[in-house]
Amino acid sequence: MSYLAGGMAITIRGRQASRKEAPILVVAPHSSFLDSCIVYATKMSSVIVRKESMDNYVGKLINYTQPVYVWRDDPNSRQNTIKEIIERATSKEDWPQVLIFPEGTCTNRSCLITFKPGGFYPGVPVQPVTIRYPNARDTVTWTWEGPGALKLLWLTLTQVHSSCEIEFLPVYYPSEEEKRDPKLYARNVRDVMAKALGVPVLDYTYDDCRLIARAKQLGIPCAASTREISEIRAQLGLERSQLELQLCARGPGAGRWVGREEFARRLALPLHHTTHRLFDIFMQRSSGLVYFPDYLLCAAFLSLQNAPLTQLLSIAFKLYDGNRSGRLSGANFEEVGTRCLGLSADDAAHAFAHAAPADSGQLTYDEFIAYAQKKAEFSFIFASEGHHKPKSQ
């Protein structure tokens, strides 16, 4: 009734299989909070849901479906979730069907990203279910970037009519090989659903999205390409050799702008197509050169994903120290602030003016840390460090 009152018509195609035929429903693509209509369309099936998503009105209603909770940032919770899915899918008791959005995050429906294998571990038949929004205006897509939930809800309510199509595809029965390999099972089901939707598949995961979002938040150079950069570094052996971190410790060296051959020489790489691709990602089109400190900062970010932000910040202070004096000028600190702390140029200039000693015109890493510890707006720098407790302003 709520959906109808909001002007949204839900069309259901195909037949929902019984729990006996398919204990698990696999739903994709996941693109909107409005996908919650699938719970009601599937006769109150039990969803796999983030615990933090339940602290709202809709979350309270979903509690009635006996959901399986997962804390996505807790590795132990993931294992417990898989165990619970297996128990429910293979139980002789009259549990509701388990409903899973295997992508694990919202996309824009232009493709299907990697399916998480959790729902495929039981090795039981699953029923693929597709969701489409065949509307002239897309007011529902809620992804990492773009309008927030309230704006999307308002835009949807301003439409005279919105449509949602839910299609139940034939039950997918796994082979013996797929039962032994949940990842293979997940890939094959994804291929079937992508064919039905007429979209390609893309091997991106929720963790990839989170990595890219974090890089963009901090202003890391070439943030949107961090996943591809990580793959190329692994192919070239840079991830294993840790050469980039060694270069960071010494500083970027003389000549900050480098050409293709010098880029390969500094990283001890052969000049072949993979090296060329890595160079091209960072190359500035106007000059045909790469600003080497930017590359090293991005490489350090990828190498130190689980390290405190202060460690990356200390590296940035070395990389953008043009005189190798241990002290940054205002222009140098602006490079650090915009590339490592997600600051605007004005905010970086303001922080420098207040953190640098009077009339010195320069700032050390320790001086900035001492200043940042006293400012609430910089508390995110110390969020993962138990020994750093930001003081209140």
Description:
- There is one protein chain.
- 33% of the residues are buried.
- It contains 18 helices and twelve strands.
- It folds into two domains: 2-204, no CATH class; 208-382, no CATH class.
- The chain has helices at 2-5, 37-41, 57-62, 75-90, 149-157, 176-180, 182-197, 206-218, 226-236, 238-241, 243-250, 260-266, 273-282, 292-303, 309-319, 330-340, 345-355, 365-372, and strands spanning 8-13, 24-28, 46-50, 68-70, 98-100, 112-113, 126-132, 162-168, 201-202, 257-258, 283-284, 289-291.
- The protein has a seven-stranded mixed beta sheet with strand order 1-8-7-2-5-3-4. The chain has a three-stranded antiparallel beta sheet with strand order 10-12-11. Strands 6-9 form a two-stranded parallel sheet.
- With 393 residues, the chain is an alpha/beta fold.
- The longest helix is centred in the N-terminal third of the chain and has 16 residues, at 75-90.
- One of its GO terms (molecular function) is lysophosphatidic acid acyltransferase activity.
- Keywords: Acyltransferase, Lipid biosynthesis, Lipid metabolism, Membrane, Phospholipid biosynthesis, Phospholipid metabolism, Transferase, Transmembrane, Transmembrane helix.
- It is found in: Membrane.
Q: Share of helix among residues?
A: 40-55%
Q: What is the CA-based Rg, rounded?
A: 25 Å
Unreliable segments (pLDDT under 50, ≥5 consecutive)? 385-393
Q: Cα distance, first to last residue? A: 49 Å
With helices defined by DSSP (H or I, 4 residues minimum), what is the helix count?
A: 18
| Beta-strand segment tally | 12
Strand sequence of the main sheet, in spatial order? Answer: 1-8-7-2-5-3-4
Shape, please? elongated
What is the subunit arrangement here?
single chain
| Structure class | alpha/beta
Instruction: Give a short account of the largest sheet.
Output: 7 strands, mixed
H/E series: HEEHEHEHEEEHEHHEHHHHEHHEEHHHHH
Keywords: Acyltransferase, Lipid biosynthesis, Lipid metabolism, Membrane, Phospholipid biosynthesis, Phospholipid metabolism, Transferase, Transmembrane, Transmembrane helix
Protein name: Lysophosphatidylcholine acyltransferase
Domain Phospholipid/glycerol acyltransferase: 24-134
Pathway: Lipid metabolism; phospholipid metabolism; Phospholipid metabolism
